[in-house]
Design a protein that fits this description.
The chain is an alpha+beta fold and 171 residues long. It has three helices and eight strands. Strands 1, 2, 3, 4, 5, 6, 7 and 8 form an eight-stranded antiparallel beta sheet that branches.
Length: 171
C-alpha cells in the first residue's frame, strides 16, 4: 500500500511542478487588453420613474493586444464617487475578443439616483472629488475553467478647478 502511494506521489510531482513553471510563462505572454469608452446610450426613461435606477448601455472598444483570441465569461463592476456607490453593472453573456484586434462590446450600467444626488452634493461642498471603479472579469481558459481577474481604478479631481478652466467665474 505504501509503495502505491509513493508511485502516485511521484506521478503527481511532475504535474505540480509543470503547473507552477507554466504560471510565469502565462503572466509574461498575456497582455492586458485596452478598453476605451466610445458611446453611452440611455435605455430607460428617468422621467417615468425618477426613483428607479437609470439604465444605460455603454459601448466599449476593447483592443486585444494578444496573438490569440480571448473568451470573457462575465464582467461585474461598480463606480464609487466620494463615499457613495453611484452605479453598478453586470454582463453575464459570453464575449469573444478576436486576436490582435478591436472588438466593440455593449454592457449594461445602472445609476442609482439617490446615491448620484448625494455624490453631487458632496462634490459641490468639498474641494476634491474622489472616484473608484472596481470590478472583475471572468476569463475562460482551456485547462482551468473561468479565472477571475479583479480590476480597480482610483483617482480624484477638483470640480471648481474644472469650472474655472471652462470659463465659469469662481473666486
Amino acid at each position: 500500500m505504501r509503495k502505491v502511494k509513493r508511485i502516485y506521489l511521484l506521478l503527481l510531482l511532475p504535474l505540480a511542478v509543470s503547473q507552477l513553471s507554466c504560471r510565469g510563462l502565462v503572466k509574461e505572454s498575456f497582455k492586458t487588453p485596452k478598453v476605451r469608452l466610445i458611446d453611452v446610450a440611455l435605455t430607460s426613461n428617468p422621467l417615468a420613474a425618477p426613483r428607479n435606477p437609470w439604465d444605460f448601455t455603454l459601448s466599449l472598444e476593447v483592443d486585444n493586444r494578444n496573438d490569440y483570441p480571448l473568451e470573457v465569461a462575465y464582467v461585474a463592476y461598480s463606480a464609487i464617487v466620494g463615499r457613495e456607490t453611484v452605479a453598478t453593472g453586470e454582463h453575464r453573456e459570453k464575449i469573444r475578443l478576436g486576436a490582435s484586434g478591436l472588438t466593440v462590446v455593449k454592457v449594461p450600467f445602472s445609476i442609482m439616483p439617490e446615491s448620484f444626488v448625494g455624490a453631487c452634493r458632496d462634490s459641490l461642498l468639498g474641494r476634491k472629488v474622489t472616484y473608484e471603479f472596481n470590478g472583475s472579469v471572468g476569463m475562460r481558459t482551456p485547462f482551468v475553467g473561468v479565472v477571475r481577474i479583479p480590476f480597480s481604478k482610483t483617482g480624484g479631481f477638483d470640480p471648481v478647478d474644472i469650472l474655472k478652466r471652462k470659463g465659469f467665474g469662481f473666486n
